[in-house]
Amino acid sequence: MLDNARFGVAKMNNRDLLARITSNVEIFRGKPIIRGMRIPVELILSLLAQGVSTDDILADYPALTREDIHACLAYARAVIANDTLDAVKLD
Hints:
Arc Repressor Mutant, subunit A; two-stranded antiparallel sheet
C-alpha cells in the first residue's frame, strides 16, 4: 500500500479525485479538463508519460495541486479499467 503522506498528498478516494475532472463543450470541445480550467487531462498525462516530474508540472501550472495530478491518473485508470490495449489506436 502506498503511503500518501510520503507523496505530500492528503488521502482522497477515487470519487473525490474524479470530481476534479470536468467537461465543458465550450472548453476544448468537451475534452476532460481539471476543475473547469483550460488545462486538459490529456496534457498532464502526456507530461507525466514524458517523464516530467510532478514538481515541474506544478511549477509550470501554479493553479494545479498534487491532487489534480492524482485526479488525472485516477481518470486515466477509470477510462481503461474496462478496456484492452487492442482497442487503443497507436500511431
